[in-house]
Amino acid sequence: MANASGDFIWYELLTTDLGAAARFYGAVLGWRARSADGSDKGYRLFGTGETDVAGSMEIPVSQSPTGMRPMWLGYVAVDDVDAAVSRIVAAGGAKHLPPTDVPGVGRFAMVGDPQGALFYVMRGAVEGGTSTSFHPSKAGHCQWNELAAKEPTAALSFYGSHFGWEKGDAMPMGELGDYQFLDHHGQTFGALMRQPTEALPPRWMFYFGVEDIDAATATATREGAKLLDGPSEVPGGIFTSIVEDPQGATFGLVGPRKK
């Protein structure tokens, strides 16, 4: 089934050391890294063996003065990149990278929502193309997309108006309010929550599937990651861990407990 406008279709790691990142994610998620054909920027692709699911590139020199840290970013499909960027900016968002063409890949732009969370919008070069970078049940793929915002209600309104995302179920989180599930075309693909720490900026975080949460978490810490939380049980009988990779990018692991 082809991806629809509003789907997450790709994930990208901005880092300071491509080689170290390839070794780390290869050990933790089983990804194989290879250079992207025709890339003059050292872009690398991460794959599961079946398909490519993510990419990695060094933080652009142009972003160094801004203090951009290593991070994971997601790509959201749109029908018209230029129009989407114009609407996002008009709604109070920001354009960080103008619409750009990559031959044979597609057209994309980096933007920020009105609260500052960064993401990309993209239209692929292949009509009717299907990305499985997000897959709610496959190990090695992103299984959950989570946004932490200072004003969740405003964030939900923004993303709903631009991408058609809808409110799903919700879990109460006490003083933090609800952990609000996000639905798109009948599928729950992630959630929205209030940023628990005022010092941290609004941001997207992505949880990648593993076959054994304890083994993956142990491997991550052994390979130099910092464990920030978990493993913690979540609804559905699965567990999550939040880690910071050796270069400083934060991401999540999600999967069952085998013990």
Query: In CATH, what is the class of the largest domain?
Result: Alpha Beta
Model regions low in confidence, pLDDT < 50 over at least 5 residues: none
- Percent in strands: 35-45%
CATH architecture of the largest domain: Roll
CATH topology of the largest domain: 2,3-Dihydroxybiphenyl 1,2-Dioxygenase, domain 1
Q: Look at the helices and sheets and give the structural class.
A: alpha+beta
User: How many domains, in number, for the residues?
Assistant: 2
Large-scale geometry: globular
CATH superfamily of the largest domain: 2,3-Dihydroxybiphenyl 1,2-Dioxygenase, domain 1
Tell me roughly what share of residues is in helical segments. Answer: 10-25%
The number of helices is 4
Helix/strand order: EHEEEEHEEEEHEEEEHEEE
What is the rounded distance between the termini?
Answer: 36 Å
Q: Give a count of the beta strands, DSSP E runs of length 2 or more.
A: 16
Main sheet strand line-up:
2-3-4-1-5-8-7-6
Return the average pLDDT rounded to an integer. 92
Largest sheet: 8 strands, mixed
Give the oligomeric state of the chains in this entry, treating copies of one chain as homo and distinct chains as hetero. Answer: single chain
InterPro entries: Anthracycline_SecMetBiosynth (IPR052164), Glyas_Bleomycin-R_OHBP_Dase (IPR029068), Glyas_Fos-R_dOase_dom (IPR004360), VOC_core (IPR037523)
Organism: Stigmatella aurantiaca
Protein name: VOC domain-containing protein
